[in-house]
Design a protein that fits this description.
Elements lengths: L3 H10 L2 H6 L5 E3 L2 E4 L11 E4 L4 E4 L5 E2 L1 H9 L3 H12 L11 H22 L1 H9 L4 H6 L3 E3 L5 H8 L4 H6 L15 E7 L5 E8 L7 E3 L15 H11 L2 E4 L2 H9 L5 E3 L7 H7 L5 E5 L4 H16 L3 E4 L7 H8 L1 H9 L2 E2 H12 L5 H20 L3 H15 L3 H8 L17 H11 L4 H5 L8 H11 L9 H13 L5 H30 L3 H20 L8
């Protein structure tokens, strides 16, 4: 196990702003940094990172934590993996004796199984000829790591036994047929499916004869779910980030075709439409997507479903128009340059919707036009709900051009009241308590001075936060309410001379203390009948009024 002190040392050594900046574009706001949240869809930045607290917090979705948690969430890795990466980043030696996790065992098992599939591929004439027929050179076959599972080979079972694993593990890990021990992928070309960090977590099998299904994935396990894995993301993520867009297609060979053509920012879904889980993997990399699904009825249906997920997540989307059935066929028939040209001509999704729905509705008739507009209204509502006025206006313009209706008529038919949207500002003028919290967090030298102020003069949440900080507890343990308060304060107070700020604050809180005591004396005077006690109270009141006058307060003392 790793000691708590060493974990804390690593967290304190990490520049969390520099770490987060590798995934999110940040701008300085007050003493914090702000950007678009990588964990949920938004167009107005509500994600804050603070270098003093060493924490991040999103006011939109509530995502919050330290450097370790950020790396875990953004890279979808374990605590251990995140800790190891950060330790390496800051040059801290880390000796972990946590033992091997079940996922480590799972990945090692699949890696060993695939090593055998690779050997079998090189020895199998049918598999090699199949790949050659699809235009792959020997170098490409090695680069894209094709494997093969021969008939009745029981490779998965044999590898499990060589690792002293029970036969049930091969079945549990989705690589054998129930009850027989025979490979799930027997007689198939095998392609490794990796997570975004390049670890094998499943396989895809392609039949080389007439057996069905043509494509087959590993059975789902707790370490592999089709709805959350994007094929080739491990290879594509760097290019997606640098080019600021991703190409998403439907099949393994489609994604590979793009990579062969030099379009290395392409990924594929695994026999399903795009999901919110897929989108969450893309958010830290880019919010621009070109969909390149198959050019058939099923592909169009998948495109529309995927468009909805992406548009609701505030992505900017375009759609590739293919002359052939799929990108792989287009690449093999027409070459890399043609495929790249198609990408440059991808249709903005609004125009794609216009074209697709025109196939289903006759807009020259009033009934057809009503259905056409009614179908598009749902998309208009999504855009307005997500404050995408730019895309909404493009949709209205595209419908107007197609139907020859005016834009005002289209708006009226959408039955939507379009008004300019303004976002209410979250920031208000900082209070004295806000400044106290700001100084307590950002200037440790002032903490003893602040502790001299009567805590009863502070608001309840200020007292709680200062008490927490005084105990020097792990800041990641802050309650959501206090964490949100701390980040809000740090975001709205500009940096300045802390001692000068404190000097002014001390006067203000001294004045508050005097005013509080004056109020208490006035309450006592209202009911006091003892002349001696009244005299003492009045004397003290005069002293306080004089003190208040010297502090610049209400000179009347009332």
């Amino acid at each position: 196990m790793v000691s708590k002190d060493l974990i804390e040392k690593i967290k304190q050594s990490v520049d969390i702003v520099e770490l987060v900046s590798q995934y999110v574009s940040l701008q300085k706001v007050g003493s914090s940094y702000r950007g678009l949240c990588p964990f949920h869809a938004e167009k107005t930045p509500s994600f804050f990172v603070n270098p003093v607290l060493k924490l991040y917090h999103c006011f939109g979705c509530g995502a919050s934590g330290d450097a370790i948690k950020f790396l875990q969430e953004i890279e979808h890795i374990s605590f251990r993996e995140a800790l190891e990466r950060l330790a390496k980043m800051v040059g801290v030696e880390l000796k972990i004796s946590m033992g091997r996790s079940e996922k480590d065992l799972y990945v090692e098992y699949l890696t060993r199984v695939f090593a055998e599939y690779r050997k079998q591929f090189k020895q199998n004439k049918v598999a090699v000829e199949y790949i050659a027929k699809r235009g792959f050179s020997e170098n490409e076959a090695n680069s894209y790591e094709f494997g093969f599972s021969p008939e009745n080979s029981r490779i998965a079972q044999k590898v499990a036994r060589s690792m002293s694993l029970p036969d049930e593990k091969a079945l549990q890990y989705g690589l054998t047929k129930s009850g027989s021990g025979v490979d799930l992928f027997e007689g198939r070309l095998v392609i490794p499916i990796k997570d975004e960090n390049g670890k094998i977590i499943a396989f895809a099998g392609r039949s080389l004869d007439d057996r069905e299904p043509k494509y087959l994935n590993s059975l789902e396990t707790k370490f592999f779910s089709k709805k959350s894995v994007l094929f080739m993301l491990d290879r594509a993520k760097k290019a997606i980030k640098s080019l600021d867009f991703a190409v998403i297609c439907e099949g393994y060979f489609d994604a590979i075709a793009f990579h062969r053509a030099g379009v290395t920012n392409a990924v594929a879904v695994l026999g399903t439409s795009l999901t919110r889980e897929h989108v969450s993997k893309l958010m830290p990399l880019s919010r621009n997507v070109i969909l390149a699904f198959d050019n058939d009825r099923a592909g169009i249906k998948a495109t529309l479903k995927s468009l909805k997920v992406l548009v609701e997540a505030s992505f900017d989307v375009a759609v590739l128009k293919l002359p052939e059935k799929d990108p792989d066929e287009t690449y093999r028939k027409r070459g890399a340059d043609y495929l790249k040209k198609l990408l440059s001509e991808a249709l903005p999704f609004e125009n794609y919707l216009i074209e697709v729905y025109e196939r289903f509705f006759d807009v020259t008739t009033s009934a057809g036009l009503e259905k056409y507009i009614g179908t598009l209204r749902g998309w208009a509502e999504i855009l307005l709900r997500n404050k995408r006025m730019d895309r909404y206006e493009r949709l209205v313009e595209a419908v107007s051009q197609k139907t020859r209706l005016s834009t005002s008529q289209v708006n009226e038919m959408f039955r939507l009241q379009v008004t300019p949207t303004t976002m209410a500002s979250r920031s208000t003028l900082p209070t004295e308590d806000d400044y106290i919290v700001y100084l307590y967090i950002t200037c440790e030298e002032l903490r003893d001075k602040i502790d001299e102020i009567d805590p009863e003069l502070f608001a309840d949440k200020t007292r709680k936060l200062i008490s927490f900080l005084r105990e020097k507890r792990d800041l990641s343990e802050l309650s959501p309410e206090l964490k949100q308060y701390a980040f809000a304060v740090l975001a709205k107070i500009p940096e300045g001379d802390p001692w000068k700020v404190f000097s002014d604050l001390k006067k203000r809180f001294t004045r508050k203390a005097v005013e509080r005591e004056l109020s208490q004396i006035d309450s006592k005077l209202a009911t006091c009948r003892d002349d001696e006690e009244r005299g003492l109270l009045l004397k003290r009141r005069l002293e306080l009024v004089s003190q208040l006058r010297s502090l610049g307060g209400d000179q009347s003392g009332t």
